[in-house]
Amino acid sequence: MTIYMAQFKPTSEFPLLKKYKKRFNILPGTIFAYDHVIYTDEKLPEHLIIHESTHFKQQDKVGLRKWVKKYLKDDDFRLEMELEAYWAQLASIKNRNEQFKVKQHSCQDLSSDLYGNLLTYEEAFEKLSHVQMQKTMW
User: What is the pLDDT of residue 131?
Assistant: First the structure.
């Protein structure tokens, strides 16, 4: 898995923070990936950097402005983007116990208002259970 080179900046410097706060329930600790910059106030483990780097690949492929517009307005697109990022993240974790813990946390996030209540916890768990079989599409 290739990790894109990224800069890190504080969350408060995320240029679309107000726009995202209007759409989602942004909590302290929320991480943003935008134009090869990861906006976070915390040190991230490698698996989270891989998750955010997947968003960079998506943004490069789709186009940054188009990606952001679709991410904010299109629930199906946002779910597709997040599932791909979570699959890459989970696949990068070799320890099965750690992978399971991260999967549980990922399911909580996917089923919350952080992403717009895209699916239930059970649906998220089912979709992420096939991580070993999934290949990232980008």
Answer: 58
Torsion (CA) 33, 79, 122, 102 in degrees, nearest 10: -20
Own/partner contacts of 89-93, CB < 8 Å, gap of 24 or more, are 89/47, 89/48, 89/50, 89/51, 89/54, 90/47, 90/128, 90/131, 91/1, 91/131, 91/132, 91/134, 91/136, 92/1, 92/46, 92/47, 92/50, 93/47
Nearest to 134 by CA among 92, 100, 88: 88
Containing structural domain, residue 12: 7-128
Indicate whether 2 belongs to any domain.
no
Asked if residue 133 is part of any domain, the answer here is no
Residues of the chain with pLDDT under 70: 1-4, 131-138
Q: Please write down the HEC assignment for all residues of 45-62.
A: CHHHHHHHHHHHHHHHHH
Q: Quick one: tokens of 67?
A: 């990606």
What is the structure's pLDDT at 136? 41
